[in-house]
Amino acid sequence: VDMEGARKNLESESPDFDFDKTRENAFGVWENELENVQVSGVDETDLKIFYTCLYHTLLDPRTMADVDGRFPLNGEILSSDEYTHRTMFSGWDVYRSEFPLLAVIRPDIVNDEVNSLLKIAETKNTSFPRWELMGIDAKCMVGDPGTIMIADAYLKGIRNFDYKKAYEIAKASALCKKSLFSKPFTSIRPDCKQYLENAFVPKKISETLEYLLADYTLSQFAKDLGHDDDTEYFMSRVKRYPENYNKRLGFMISRRNNGWFCFERDIYDGIGCVESNIFQQTWFVPYDVEGLSRLFGEKRTLKLLERFFEEADFGKLWNESYNHSNEPCHNITHYFSILGLPERTQYWTRRVQKEAYRLGAFGFCGNEDVGQLSAWYVLSALGFAQVCPGHQDYFINTPLFKRATLKLNKEYHSCVNGETFTVECDKDPLEYPYISKIEFNGKLIKRPHLSYFEITSGGTLKFELSKEPVTDYFEETKNLFLN
Q: Residues 291-323, buried b or exposed e (16+ Cβ, 10 A)?
């Protein structure tokens, strides 16, 4: 903030100005942080990758406030003793795995970030930032990820913020309002008749699908707050996603202002897509995977999914099919579980873990994107992925380690079964990659998912593993989000 703040920071963090002592202290701080997640495995490479990734996920969003709580924002010096103001929110990337992971292992950071985005939006009377850096919205990428992340946090019970005000900002953003709280308001959403009336952005399929996901999370936010009319309205938008399906091409593609489909050469065409192509972007309906399958044809969907992964080189920096290097493809491996083939989720998730991550300076298959690529690995190594923000099921895959223990936070988690959540496998998951049986706190689980609230209640999730795929264990494999 100023020289006085800088001096206080220095006195607090490095009073001796001793390099070796500072190094030793830093090592101790990170040891303490990383002990929140303890894993046991026999593969040293997997352990190194896991803890490197966990380290990366905890680097951001970083503290922006001085030790006295002050921070600069929009030309003012503000302060708070209720939360730590943070910066570096790579929204379009990190709502997919980073924040679903932090909600379990560091919900206090999630709460800080929600308050930080809310303070920025409140101060400037705008939408939540899309890509925030030092209080400024860089507006990188597309969509309304602040709404997605904040709605998901609220629905997880992370609520140490003014959630009523947050809802009003999210709603104003989604409706492209010109004023809010008796002041001019600026929305990051496209102020266009087509989206407001017909739920699509002309010539932009990526933006269309991102805004529809934000509308889904907003509808769930509204539902929990008891705003029935808003719930119905935003859900009515979401349910129009099939209108973007081109029957001739057999994929979701962009439309012109008049609603007609744009011309596309083939499924690898990137017109209207952001850092993706039609083949990659067409899957982005995480709130209704089963409905998307019916739209495509159920047998065709499964064949396309297999082709999607079979064509990919997971260690490559860029792919025209499944592209782990970039976020639109993340968590699609878990679509198989929703569609009744959890053994294929187990197979393909393990392939991505083993082939997209390596040791060394070039160990990642693509851009880290402020923790998202690492967070996907950490969550999947623990045995999970949250496919859809706003829907609290974490879909299960085979863990990477024989045992993992997570420390929970009693301030944010119920912890009714204990203050830790432990994952145990009866055999080495590297040799036995398929699930044959699951028990949660002594009770059989016949579904391929646990809710966030089950995980954060604490206890033990036990896996019995098999060398061969088990195709008839799960009784409930489908999960319809749009209900």
A: bbbebbeeeebbebbeebbeebebbeeebebbb
Neighbour tally for 108: CB within 10 Å: 15
Residue with tokens 């939540």: 128
The Cα 217–Cα 171 span in angstroms is 11
- Helix, strand, coil shares of the chain, percent, nearest 5, are 40, 15, 45
Per-residue pLDDT of 205-247, as tens digits, reads 999 999 999 999 999 999 999 999 999 999 999 999 999 999 9
Query: Token digits for 454?
Result: 């089950």
Helix/strand/coil for 311: coil
Mean pLDDT of the 183-195 span = 92
What confidence tens digit (pLDDT) does each residue in 109-128 have? 999 999 999 999 999 999 99
Per residue in 85-111, pLDDT (tens digit) is 999 999 999 999 999 999 999 999 999
Say if residue 362's pLDDT is above 90: no
Q: Residue 221 contacts by C-beta under 8 Å, 6 or more apart in sequence? A: 151, 154, 155, 167, 170, 390
- The beta-strand segments (E) located in 193-302 are 245-246, 251-252
Phi/psi-derived region of residue 146, left when phi > 0, alpha when psi is between -120 and 50, beta in every other case: alpha
- Report pLDDT for 483: 61
| Alpha carbon separation from 63 to 66, 134, 438, 461 (Å, rounded) | 8, 10, 39, 34
- Contact status, residue 54 vs residue 62, Cβ threshold 8 Å: no
- DSSP string over 150-181: HHHHHHTT---S-HHHHHHHHHHHHTT-SEET
Cα–Cα distance between 391 and 224 in angstroms, integer?
12
Task: Give the span between the Cα atoms of 136 and 315, in whole angstroms.
Answer: 34
